[in-house]
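FIELD: query
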Amino acid sequence: MGGQLLEPDQAGADDVVLSWEGREVVAVRLPHLAESLERILADLERRHGVPLAELDRRVKQSVVRNLEARGAFSLRHGVETVAAALGVSRFTIYNYLNRD
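FIELD: result
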């Protein structure tokens, strides 16, 4: 995932500080994955040659399956970000995800 280990006293607001038996032992700085999602969406838009919101439903479903395989929906606000890019609701994204 590309995280970086830091001393607990070097942790910033977005870092995760891990404790063991009540003592802070290490901080983990995670990469800004939300920015990665934005790059993935921009790349998909370039590949399709039109804004993602203009794709038909079948292609949007394919995009959602591809993004799910890449872990996009494990990110905080991933569903909302993808829904906005595709011009659909969060409910629609969940429907696409639950479709077999």
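FIELD: remark
Residues 38 and 81 are 8 Å apart (CA to CA).
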